[in-house]
Amino acid sequence: MTASLPALGRRAVLLAAALALAGCSSIAPKPAATDIHVMTSGGFTAAYNDLRPGFEKASGRAVKTAYGASMGNASDSIPSRLGRGEPADVVILARPALDALVAEGKVVPGSQVDLVRSTIGFAVKKGAPKPDIGTVDALKRTLLAAPSIAYSASASGTYYETELLRNLGIEAQVKPKSKRILSERVGTVVARGDAALGLQQVSELLPIEGIDYVGPLPAEVQRVTVFSAGVATGSKQPEAARELIRYLNSPAAAPTIAKTGLEPITAR
Predict the structure, then answer these.
(1) What are phi and psi of 53, to 5 degrees?
(2) 201 touches 119 (CB < 8 A)
(3) Any residues with CB less than 8 A from the CB of 116 and at least 6 apart, and which?
(4) Does residue 216 sit in helix, strand or coil?
(5) How do residues 207-240 score in pLDDT, each as one tens digit?
(6) Considering only CA atoms, which of 83, 2, 7 is closest in space to residue 39?
(7) CA distance 254 to 205
(8) Which of 1, 85, 169, 212 lies 20 to 30 Å (CA to CA) from residue 175?
(9) Is the predicted pLDDT of residue 120 greater than 80, yes or no?
């Protein structure tokens, strides 16, 4: 007959006591559930923070989180954290950066799961006039007129500094007054008045207090970024990591994700 759970718990306690009496107190029963370590980039952070408590409650596992950019060499970027050997079971970042980590042997091949589509938008300090960015021509005029512009050091900022300004034909005029922000939210920089205009993933702008969201880039110059999750090759518990990814990718998670300004990509 199978032993009841309370009986198994008493046996574990008795086993630990017996080992201690035998001089083997350094050996303890394995806990029923261990922590999961996650590294997530800013684009998915708001949705992740809202979803994490539900997973912890359902799984009985605590989830430890490190935050950083999808790319770049900032000390807290996800590639830098992995390079230092920080613990990670799940990594969540822009899909091109995730695929690069697979190629580098830091993420398990085939473990990538697309979670959301993310768009880029602008914000100004709370109460400031909202500029017109509704058309490509209006966007050009706004960027040319802005005294200062902050942009992220991750996917949206890379697009801004390497493609958007050049494609608009205003790189020479606008890039010198643009500032790439490391290890901080662009919205925070705008909120304290250090930049008149801020560009970042919409989901990263919306939670910031002290700013007003202006709107997304016009469709003709918009860049949609897919944020995806994968299992780190150094994971101590890959099955638990996959369990968390399935949870984030589930239809039940979609409404929470959508509230943060992202388009969920749910499992079929």
Answers:
(1) -60, -35
(2) yes
(3) 43, 44, 47, 203, 226, 227, 257, 262, 263, 264, 265
(4) strand
(5) 999 999 999 999 999 999 999 999 999 999 999 9
(6) 83
(7) 20
(8) 212
(9) yes
Judge whether residue 61 has pLDDT over 60.
yes
Token pair for residue 130?
A: 């909202």
Sheet with 225-231, edge to edge strand ranges: 63-67, 36-40, 90-94, 225-231, 113-118, 263-264
Give CA–CA dist 230/266, Å, rounded: 15
Nearest alpha-carbon partner for 206 in 181, 183, 185: 185
DSSP secondary structure string, 16-53?
HHHHHHTT-TT--PPPSS--EEEEE-HHHHHHHHHHHH
Decide: 153 and 73 in contact? Cβ < 8 Å.
no
Q: How many Cβ atoms are within 10 Å of 235's Cβ, its own excluded?
A: 22
Taking the C-alpha atoms of residue 11 and residue 75, their distance in angstroms, rounded to an integer, is: 46
- CA distance linking residue 180 with residue 141, whole number of Å: 21
User: CB–CB of 27/19 below 8 Å?
Assistant: yes
Q: What is the pTM of this model?
A: 0.80
Q: Is 149 helix (H, G, I), strand (E, B) or coil?
A: strand
